[in-house]
Design goal:
With 129 residues, the protein is mainly beta. It has one domain: Jelly Rolls (Sandwich). It has one helix and ten strands, in the order ββαββββββββ. The strands form two sheets. Strands 1-2-8-5-10-3 form a six-stranded antiparallel β-sheet, with helices on one face. Strands 4-9-6-7 form a four-stranded antiparallel β-sheet, with no helix packed on it. The longest helix is centred in the first third of the chain and has 10 residues. The chain is globular.
């Protein structure tokens, strides 16, 4: 895979460089090997998420479809877009403002990881939550 570190703002984009499409099980295993707890998501064509940020790093690895990430460059400037296709991955640092959109006529199916994907752990005996 080809890494594109020139995007800036600590954004890491890795482009899929194989002729065969990505396989969910392989990408899932690779994310787990990096210490993440991945989960599968799918969003319909035309889905748009307005400018937002997360208090945690965001990882998105596209299995099928097209996703566009946009990043504001400054006050009043047009956002800088990054288009992802099947197999491409983007890693964003915590608190980075961004917008996303599903492009094209197909669902975008992707693996992602966040603190909300962590397994549920039972509290110790005597602790009520």
């Amino acid at each position: 895979m080809e890494e594109n570190a020139a995007v800036g703002q600590d954004i890491r984009v890795v482009r899929w460089d194989r002729e065969s499409p990505p396989v969910e099980e392989e990408l899932y295993a690779r994310m787990e090997a990096e210490g993440y707890v991945p989960y599968l998501r799918a969003e319909p064509p035309g889905t748009k998420k307005p400018l937002h940020r997360h208090p945690f790093p965001e990882i998105t690895w596209v299995l099928s479809g097209w996703m566009r990430y946009s990043f504001p460059l400054g006050e009043g400037a047009e956002p800088s877009p990054v288009m992802l296709k099947a197999g491409d991955r983007i890693d964003l640092p915590a608190d980075l403002p961004h917008e996303t959109a599903v492009e094209g006529a197909a669902y975008a199916v992707y693996l992602t990881a966040s603190p909300f994907a962590l397994p549920v752990v039972s509290p110790p005996p005597g602790v009520n939550i």
